[in-house]
Amino acid sequence: MEIKQYIKENESRFLEELFSLIRIPSISALPQHKDDMLACAERWRQLLLEAGADEAMIMPSQGNPLVYAEKRVSPDAPTVLIYAHYDVMPAEPLELWKSQPFEPEVRDGHIWARGADDDKGQAMIQAKAFEYVVKEGLLKHNVKFIFEGEEEIGSPSLNAFLKEHKELLKADVILVSDTSMLGADLPSLTTGLRGLAYWEIEVTGPNRDLHSGHFGGAVANPINTLCSMLAQVIDADGRITIPHFYDDVEEVPAAERDMIAHIPFDEKKYMEAIGVKALKGEKGYSTLERNSCRPSFDVCGIWGGYTGEGSKTVLPSKAYAKVSCRLVPHQNHEVISKLFVDYINSIAPEYVQVKVTPMHGGEGYVCPISLPAYQAAEKGFTKAFGKKPLAVRRGGSIPIISDFEQILGIKTVLMGFGLESDAIHSPNENFSLDIFRKGIEAVVEFHKEFSK
Amino acid sequence: MEIKQYIKENESRFLEELFSLIRIPSISALPQHKDDMLACAERWRQLLLEAGADEAMIMPSQGNPLVYAEKRVSPDAPTVLIYAHYDVMPAEPLELWKSQPFEPEVRDGHIWARGADDDKGQAMIQAKAFEYVVKEGLLKHNVKFIFEGEEEIGSPSLNAFLKEHKELLKADVILVSDTSMLGADLPSLTTGLRGLAYWEIEVTGPNRDLHSGHFGGAVANPINTLCSMLAQVIDADGRITIPHFYDDVEEVPAAERDMIAHIPFDEKKYMEAIGVKALKGEKGYSTLERNSCRPSFDVCGIWGGYTGEGSKTVLPSKAYAKVSCRLVPHQNHEVISKLFVDYINSIAPEYVQVKVTPMHGGEGYVCPISLPAYQAAEKGFTKAFGKKPLAVRRGGSIPIISDFEQILGIKTVLMGFGLESDAIHSPNENFSLDIFRKGIEAVVEFHKEFSK
Lengths: 452, 452
Hints:
peptidase activity (chains A, B); 2 domains; 16 strands; protease (chains A, B); homodimer; Cyt/Met_Dipeptidase (chains A, B)
């Protein structure tokens, strides 16, 4: 049976299987969801068995367990290791969702739910393409699956897991569907990723909240101080001011900048889609360079003092921020993490106490387009989307991709099917049914090509 | 009966009465406490009647009702109007309280609870001094009470109430116990107060929370932007940068600066008490000048992005701050409010949308020490505390004090008995029982002196 026909006949089952995963709120950032993590892992184990794996099991780690499954065709055949993650981001702010984040809805040809794309929907593409090639006897190589439950919190346990299970995870290439394309009509494969470093900053002023009338003007306010410190991290040219921050940043080669300049990109539409009147970034670089090949600094969260209704006059004791840098290949996240901690401590005024806690991090990654598996993926996209995909660097981070390379010695091909409009990590995350179908086709084609 | 003896015999009843008020969480900032506001007003009505008022009633306003009570001695006698407020600040952060904020405890000679000082405890001093002078037949002037329920949210309804009830509230002087002294052994009367202006700032970047990997570096982050704007409000010399902000600020006269310099003040102990290693404020002024005679700018609260456990990488859509300025006499809060809104709008970059909402405000105040009622208060303090109180300006704001002057044409004497260590507006608010007793004595003496 042709893959298009197979999808048609089985789509309602595919969606029911996906929805059964989405309904489990496997939010790794929140400890109250521990049971959901187990339930979600177990559901994947069942689904991978049903899809055609010889065996599938839950494997413990220092944190949430991982799901491992495999289909062995021949000891002489090459092996593809498919990585995905079953955890999702928190759904807050809940009031902005048009439908419940953990009760998937199909509207306007899209699935709406937390995890619809990232990464339950994309992982389901891999599972269903696998099911088809197994069922049709098209699979000529071994396939292994490893699905983790801590990607959204920086995969704190994966590193040790990879080291412990190097033999089990042995493969020729890793396949990951967790990135996005330039557009529904602009298929692309990700050949570069940014790294990440993340910190929490705690600023303590007085030892208790003070009356801003009695103390205001004489005692430093930790929120004012935190704001001043954060304001210093980026200068007027949009450059990060941390000393030695750019030391290892490779300047984007002229050829690549030229290629980026030729990517069809409508800055006006980009601004309209996110509702801003102007863009802001590092001087001397285009928007597409800024969000993929250049590092960035963002305050991801800030809080302190009175944040309830109405007005409370207070000079608070504490202020907090969660901040992160996106890094580019060659920037070591541990080096950057230390540079940042040192920098913040160096600009911390004596009238407050400042504590900077590194949270997690990961390196950037580059995939050579000469890799046979990359070329198989390219053919898969070409077949499914009707045009050759562009090779582009993206701004997101999958820190573990460089861990795969360093620990397992395996290159990764990023066959991601997301779109910017999928709103991953945001309210109203969604995934196009049309892309979902094409994704399955593309991965089926990858398997066929990779075996040649 | 002597007042000391009277207090001794009745103290357990006084405390039970005070505790019955404290147990009602009359938090004006939170709408879910509407019923508590009514209950607290009603409790005060009963207590003032029991203390000796001829009549007491609940009077409606545009917001929370007010309690009015009066004792008419003679139409020819002067009248003292006693103002207090029955509302309290929110008790957050709750986890820092050693005992429940709304379940008063007596430990180490102090009452511990929200409102123990501000203003239930201090208002109770007035009520019990009144009870004594009535019972002992010492009262030679008329007394009126007006207790409002919106002081902690800026008394939004009081202005209209004063205009409507000018005749009813007619008096020769207003007496308020809602300020603090320099120390338990350093009695003082407040002769000046700072004004206040308060705003909420909302900064909107993209129309939804974005993935900081896909957009970071290319799209302005509203938290970073808010921090940069707030950091600009105070310069390196601790001066507020809002254009024309200092236009109406009267430089503190040399004689007053000299008096302030002679107030016994241990800066080291001050820093130790609030747990800071250094102080920060406007260049060229001392700590006591900075927190009483000079304006200030504080961020009272800030929030935006992900503030939960763990780390979420997000480029948020919104960031918020609650900010306030303490003002000095002659600075008009409405003028300052407009200057601030204009300033923030003028520095708001084009890549975000900024909305500044004025919340409330009030003028500063100065009380002449030649006022007979001031001198009666001075004698009251001298009798109760064994030394003449210092006349000092304080940094807090009671915006309605200048409204009393402007609308009712009446000067106010601020007989406040608080201490910095009372931690008003903070966790573990408390009030010394010793001061409570001395306060009653001082006010009794005021009544005796004022009649002369």
